[in-house]
Amino acid sequence: MATDTATDAAAPEEPLHIDGEAELDETVADYDVVLADFYADWCGPCQMLEPIVETLAAETDAAVTKVDVDANQQLASAYGVRGVPTLVLFAGGEQVEEIVGVQGEDELRSLVESYT
Questions:
Q1: Which one of 38, 56, 104, 106 is most buried, by most CB atoms within 10 A?
Q2: What is the number of domains present in the chain?
Q3: Mind listing the pLDDT tens digit for each residue in 56-84?
Q4: Dmax (CA) of the chain
């Protein structure tokens, strides 16, 4: 018997590329913990963060998403993203953390796991 609670969905092992607010809202509704990486292709620090984000997707219970701020300017604006990289953490459907700038894998893993 299937239920539509967030806990039933296993987090994907690779980052999900988000296109638009509806897709992000759906992802946040589908998973207990979601880490959204707001990035830009031209952003050097974003490129440094990419392997960390991919590792967190593979090794934690959080769903990891990537949001290209150039392609999704309205979505980035809706979340108050003024600089990239910005990571927004959702738990239980609510935004619980916002981290601006490159963070180390250990710090991000601890933060994500504190909500899983």
A1: 38
A2: 1
A3: 999 999 999 999 999 999 999 999 999 99
A4: 46
